[in-house]
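Quick review question:
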């Protein structure tokens, strides 16, 4: 009898339980009272538990059906509440994983689209000039030389784009090994500023420096760090007002050295500021100096990847056309 009653309770069905009258009269009154009290107490104390177990079952059914946004209400502090929390955490992880896969797929498509667009432009020009040369569609030797020169420049631009894309792909791959060495960052920066002076002079840019007077030793991959800094310097040259000034400074604090590159340019919006480090993003192509070749919009993204691989950070502060890019890198503590 008792088992039939419990079965009807757990299954939610109304099971008719017939109790022989003779059996009841044959039982002691105390046993009948005990059985009745037990049954009522069992129903009272387990009703909420059974109902919550049904909620868990229904929640799992909803989640397994693909609705990963569904969350089971958690209002118990016992084992069932813990189970509900674990189910919700599982659903959230699955949702985040699927969203991440979606973003990766979207990123791949954007990469293919960006590469196709940036490579097609110079390639189309190269093909056009080569067809003109092949058909001898030039007036004189001077125009012939101009066609050849333009073709060569476009080929160099195409090469630069491919190298930039290859470098970005290599940097963003997991497990990239850095060839770290102990170098003097101050000495490296001085050397780079000397090398960039002719290009700055051609662009009517003055470079002002405020560097530390002592050596600043860091453990980095020299080639990669040089590329990261060069990208910021070239970015400042491209987008500075002409004539203009680029300020390069260094400072150290505790176990960190900060390199700052500042310039004045055309003001950008907050939305543009947020996207400057995104790949293939160019705030305004019209501001690019004619004497400097455009890249694929990967320069700042490459810089960020390089610095983060070295355990550092890249930040931008912008206000009313004043740009201040900062590279923060860990360095050896001063003895």
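Suggested answer, residue by residue:
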């Amino acid at each position: 009898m008792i088992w039939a009653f419990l079965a009807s309770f757990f299954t939610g069905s109304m099971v008719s339980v017939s109790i022989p009258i003779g059996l009841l009269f044959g039982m002691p009154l105390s046993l009948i009272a005990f059985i009745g009290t037990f049954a009522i107490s069992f129903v009272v104390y387990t009703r909420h538990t059974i109902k919550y177990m049904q909620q868990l079952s229904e929640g799992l059914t909803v989640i397994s059906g693909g609705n990963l946004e569904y969350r089971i209400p958690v209002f118990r502090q016992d084992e069932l509440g813990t189970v509900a929390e674990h189910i919700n955490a599982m659903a959230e992880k699955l949702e985040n994983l699927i969203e991440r896969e979606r973003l990766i797929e979207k990123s791949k498509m954007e990469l293919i689209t960006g590469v196709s667009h940036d490579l097609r432009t110079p390639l189309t020009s190269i093909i056009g000039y080569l067809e003109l040369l092949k058909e001898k569609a030039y007036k004189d030797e001077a125009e012939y030389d101009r066609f050849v020169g333009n073709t060569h420049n476009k080929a160099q631009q195409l090469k630069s784009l491919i190298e930039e894309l290859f470098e970005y792909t290599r940097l963003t791959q997991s497990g990239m090994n850095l060839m770290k060495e102990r170098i003097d960052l101050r000495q490296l920066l001085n050397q780079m500023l000397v090398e960039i002076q002719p290009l700055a002079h051609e662009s009517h840019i003055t470079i002002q420096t405020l560097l530390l007077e002592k050596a600043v030793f860091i453990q980095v991959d020299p080639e990669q760090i040089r590329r990261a800094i060069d990208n910021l310097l070239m970015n400042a040259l491209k987008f500075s007002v002409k004539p203009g000034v680029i300020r390069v400074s260094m400072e150290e604090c505790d176990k960190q050295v900060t390199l700052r590159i500042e310039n004045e340019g055309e003001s950008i919006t907050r939305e543009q500021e947020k996207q400057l480090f995104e790949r293939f993003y160019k705030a305004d192509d019209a501001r690019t100096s004619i004497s400097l070749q455009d890249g694929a919009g990967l320069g700042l993204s490459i810089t960020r990847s390089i610095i983060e691989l070295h355990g550092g950070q890249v930040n931008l502060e912008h206000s009313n056309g004043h740009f201040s890019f900062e590279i923060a890198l860990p360095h050896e503590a001063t003895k």
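Why it works: The longest strand covers residues 244-253. The domain at 114-172 is CATH 1.10.287.130 (Helix Hairpins).
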